[in-house]
Amino acid sequence: MPLKKLISGHKNFLKGRFQQDKKLYEDLVEKGQSPEVMIISCCDSRADPVLITEADPGSIFSLRNVANLVPPSHPDGTRHGSSAALEFAVRHLKVKDIVVMGHAHCGGIKALYHGDFDNQEHVDFIEPWMSIANEARYTTLKKFEGEPEEKILKELEMESIRNSLKNLRTFRWIKSAEEEGKLGLHGWHFDIESGRLYALNEKSGEFSPLV
Ligand SMILES: [Zn+2]
């Protein structure tokens, strides 16, 4: 009964956190949401941005997809779920910051590293989706050739974050908002073992502890 624990958790929420935040929820209904931050993170069950930042309801506009990738802007009239979320966040909600939050031990990144898409269970959607990070894969494998797999995977997770920041800037309304100083773009990496977030300094290209 996998849902049993969640249902009991929901009972606790109704009695606890919801009562504490009742006024906040009422305001969010009355005035609507106005989150100032968008976080793009992986579907992975261990990397929940709301949990690790203890964020309040209404404060994070959250997009989760496989391996927290941002595709390049490609408005062709077809169904781009992640780009639609970006458009809503930037053009309608006018968020002030976008964080691309990667994480350690990412299964999507591991599959990309191994080029492990022969399995028929991966080819319909995962392989084309992960090809967004092909360039990051190429760069990382070239730079860290011969290093242990664990190190290469971590470097690839980080390079893929840099790649997604680059892709964010291909959306014309993101590029202009950033140039006008209205929008900040950030890269974070969640280290599951230590529970720590590492932040990318785009000038040096390095990640260091956020706090
Ligand atoms: Zn992941």
Question: Mind sketching the topology for me?
Answer:
Layout: H1 2-15, H2 17-20, H3 22-31, E1 37-42, H4 49-53, E2 60-65, H5 81-92, E3 97-103, H6 107-114, H7 126-130, H8 134-143, H9 149-168, H10 172-179, E4 184-191, E5 196-201, E6 206-209
Parallel strand pairs: 1-2, 1-3, 3-4
Antiparallel strand pairs: 4-5, 5-6
Helix pairs in contact: 8-9
Bound molecules: zinc ion.
> What is the rounded Rg?
18 Å
Name given to the CATH homologous superfamily of the largest domain: Carbonic anhydrase
CATH architecture of the largest domain: 3-Layer(aba) Sandwich
What count of helical segments does DSSP give? Answer: 10
Spatial order of the strands in the main sheet? 2-1-3-4-5-6
Distinct small molecules = zinc ion
Overall strand count: 6
Characterize the overall form: globular
Q: CA-to-CA gap between the ends?
A: 39 Å
What can you tell me about this protein's structure?
- This protein is an alpha/beta fold.
- It folds into 2 domains: 1-32, no CATH class; 33-209, 3-Layer(aba) Sandwich (Beta-carbonic Anhydrase, Chain A), CATH 3.40.1050.
- The protein is 45% helix and 18% strand.
- The protein is built from 10 helices and 6 strands, in the order H-H-H-E-H-E-H-E-H-H-H-H-H-E-E-E.
- Strands 2-1-3-4-5-6 form a 6-stranded mixed β-sheet, with helices on one face.
- The chain is globular.
- The mean pLDDT is 96.
Keywords:
alpha/beta, 2 domains, 211 residues, 45% helix, Beta-carbonic Anhydrase, Chain A, binds zinc ion
Compose a concise summary of this entry:
It is built from ten helices and six strands.
